Amino acid sequence: MSAVTADPATEQALELNDVPRQRIKPGRIILHTFLITMAIGWLIPIGTAIYNSFRFYESDTQVNGPFSAPDSLTLQNYRDAWRVGEMGKTFGNTAFIVIPALFITLLLSAGVAYACTRFSWKFNIAFLVLFTAGNLMPQQVLFQPLFQIYKRVPWPDILSDTNTGNLLGTKIAVILIHIAFQVGFCTFVLANYMKTIPKELGEAASVDGAGVLRQFFQVILPLTRPALAALATLEFTWLYNDFFWGAVLLNQGDERPITSSIAVLNGQYATDFNLIAAASIMIALPTLIVYLILQKQFISGLTLGANKG
Asked: Distance between CA 296 and CA 97 in Å, rounded?
């Protein structure tokens, strides 16, 4: 008696029916609902700002509302914001402050983290804790004493923006305070990351004749590139968006960073919110571009070391 062969499609269907179906857990539904709600909550104001930045305010948005259909779309808000806010000059001021502060902060932080993690000396832990504790001090508390210190520190006029003879009112003053405040956080992050790098690599380089500086620049720094990329993204965002120190230390309006451009666009009796929306979008573009460029390194830098003991 010959065996009856079943249809392959029927056998596959029977196998699929035998596989137990996974039930969707209520906790996962609640989590996804929460995440979707938060995403929509963040995207609505951003989308509204982008949408209204292409509309006239007095004749359209103010009359019909921010969510109404537009009478017409225009780029005039972007042109006016660029001209009235002098954004070309303030972008240059911001670049002059952010780029040196970013590179110096990362270099100093990497050096301190390297010294505290790769060498055993008496006060290395206390030194690392001291750097980390500096982040706990509110910046507003230091404003008045720092203001007086900068006012009494002589500075050559050839290197000054205001020719006052002191550090107050110069971009160098803002760069120095950014470096002082950000080194602590970056040192803490890089020190924790460098602890995951085997010390045998440095010992092998030392056997090959590499000195301390060569080990630092050619062995340790390349291995910490993901962490440096993540920190560079965060630090660029924080330094670029700073308004406080630029407002209190730079006493001339045309020397202030890009974040001060929005303050110039605020009228005394009326405010064009569409104009401010256009300026805000232009101001936010550099941070978005930096994140998109370093996105892969930023994410890998945050996740590396998560599965290490």
From this structure: 26
CA 172, 173, 175: angle at the middle one, nearest 5? 60
The SS3 of residue 166 is strand
What does the block give as tokens for 100?
């040196």
In this structure, what token pair is assigned to residue 128? 């690392």
Distance CA 236, CA 219 (A): 25
Q: Which class in CATH covers the domain with range 90-303?
A: mainly alpha
- Beta-carbon contacts of 93 under 8 Å, excluding residues fewer than 6 positions away, are 171, 255, 256, 257, 258
Q: Where are the domains of the chain?
A: 27-74, 90-303
Which tokens hold the place of 18? 């035998």
- Residue 273's Cα: distance from chain center in Å? 26
Q: What is the pLDDT of residue 267?
A: 65
Q: Of how many residues is the chain composed?
A: 309
Tokens of 64: 């019909």
pLDDT tens-digit series, residues 64-80: 888 888 888 999 999 99
